Amino acid sequence: MSGTALAAGVVVVAATLSLGLTAVGGAAATAQRAAGAADAAALAAADAASGAVATGEAPCVVAARVAQASRSELVSCTLDALTATGEVRSAYSGLVAVARARAGPPNS
Which of 6, 40, 42, 107 could form a disulfide bond with 103, CB atoms 3.0-4.6 angstroms apart? Predict the structure, then answer.
């Protein structure tokens, strides 16, 4: 009887560890997705502001579309001449990852 209880305990511990590691892995992936989306959104806004990308939309609108394509939400977008700064938020199972990025010409 004690062997069965030990085996059941091992299974419960293994299942708990698996769920915990899955949550940590998902949160880490979400943080990386947010960072990538912030980089891409800031670059898109800077390119639109400089005219490197021809678009009829405002730079921050382009940045919002790029963030949305990465399953993220653009929280803020500011332009200082040709330098764009964007903040992006991504969610995973109730956890929120926020990332910021800045893009523009060199030495700006």
Answer: 42
Question: Which pairs count as long-range contacts for 66-73, CB under 8 Å and 24+ apart, including other chains?
Answer: 66/37, 66/40, 66/41, 67/37, 67/38, 67/40, 67/41, 70/33, 70/36, 70/37, 70/40, 71/33, 71/37, 72/33, 72/34, 72/37, 72/38, 72/41
C-alpha distances out from residue 13 to 9, 18, 20, 51, 93, Å: 6, 9, 11, 57, 22
Do you know the residue count of the chain? 108
Q: How far apart are CA 76 and CA 52, in angstroms?
A: 22
Write out pLDDT tens, residues 4-53. Answer: 888 888 888 888 888 877 777 877 888 898 999 999 999 999 999 998 88
CA atoms within 13 A on the CB side of 39: 6
Longest dimension (CA), the chain: 75
